[in-house]
Specification:
By secondary structure, this protein is α+β, with helices and mostly antiparallel strands. The chain folds into two domains: 12-118, Winged helix-like DNA-binding domain superfamily/Winged helix DNA-binding domain (Arc Repressor Mutant, subunit A), CATH 1.10.10; 136-207, no CATH class. Helix content is 50%, strand content 13%. The protein has seven helices and seven strands. The strands form two sheets. The chain has a five-stranded mixed β-barrel. Strand 3 and strand 4 (95-98) form a beta hairpin. Helix 3 (46-54) packs across helix 4. It is a multi-pass membrane protein. Keywords: Endoplasmic reticulum, Membrane, Protein transport, Translocation, Transmembrane, Transmembrane helix, Transport. The chain crosses the membrane at residues 119-138, 150-173. InterPro entries: Sec62, Sec62_asco.
């Protein structure tokens, strides 16, 4: 554990600890969204952080062996300004303000100043710039690449047009069958359902279930209940007459 001295570059060990605590998938610490000095931040309660660091889950040893060790780690995060102790506004819970006492307390809140690894952000920015430059420099592409791109775009437009055509045809078929029969016939009934690509085209067709399919069963059950009640009443009347 690093010594808490003058504020400088945090040691790698402390950065690794901050990365662990900052990731909900690793530590299980769930942070909330708040606003600190006009900036959107994530914040958590001290007690939740201590529980996440000392709780054993899935047979894995906790990050900290004791609650005192967890307090020391969190204090180092404060010393290197990776987190900051803050208070919530009484009227707006999402509005935060920095507390002058930068120590560890289970009942107070802490906002993240540490933003985690920026590698994915950098790679994403490079990717966006590369795509934009590639689009701008399209006239300078080799003829083979330009022709390939044109063919791919035509294939994509063809598939999109085929999807629209299938949707129109299946709607026409459904309307015709609804008029001709009590039930409507759907071609590719799972086409717009939340299923996989291949499952969208299985089965090939299906008849729509009638809306009142359950009514006869409900009516028959209701009739059966009424008959049972009538028989029970009749039996009761018979027993009463016998008693007289």
């Amino acid at each position: 554990m690093a010594d808490a001295g003058a504020i400088g570059s945090p040691p790698k060990e402390l950065l690794g600890f901050a990365s662990y605590l900052h990731s909900p998938s690793k530590s299980g610490l769930r942070a909330r969204e708040g606003v600190l000095n006009g900036r959107r931040v994530q914040y958590f309660k001290g007690k939740s952080a201590l529980n996440a660091l000392t709780k054993e889950e899935g047979g894995k040893k906790p990050r900290c062996a004791s609650r005192e060790e967890a307090v020391e780690w969190i204090q180092e995060l404060l010393d290197f300004q990776l987190i900051v102790r803050c208070d919530r506004d009484a009227q707006a819970a999402s509005m935060l303000r920095i507390n002058p006492m930068q120590n560890v307390d289970e009942d107070t809140y802490y906002a993240w100043l540490y933003e985690g690894s920026q590698i994915m952000v950098i790679l994403g920015g490079i990717g966006v710039v590369a795509v934009v430059l590639a689009g701008v420099m399209f006239p300078l592409w080799p003829s083979v690449l330009r022709n390939g791109t044109w063919y791919l775009s035509m294939v994509a437009l063809g598939l999109l047009g085929l999807l629209f055509a299938i949707a129109i045809v299946r709607l026409i078929v459904y309307i015709i069958t609804v008029i001709a029969c009590p039930q409507g016939l759907w071609i590719f009934p799972n086409l717009f359902e939340d299923v996989g690509f291949f499952e969208s085209f299985v089965p090939l067709h299906a008849w729509e279930a009638p809306k009142n399919a359950n009514k006869p069963a409900a009516q028959s059950s209701a009739a059966g209940s009424a008959d049972a009640d009538a028989e029970a009443s009749a039996d009761a009347g018979t027993e009463h007459s016998k008693d007289e």
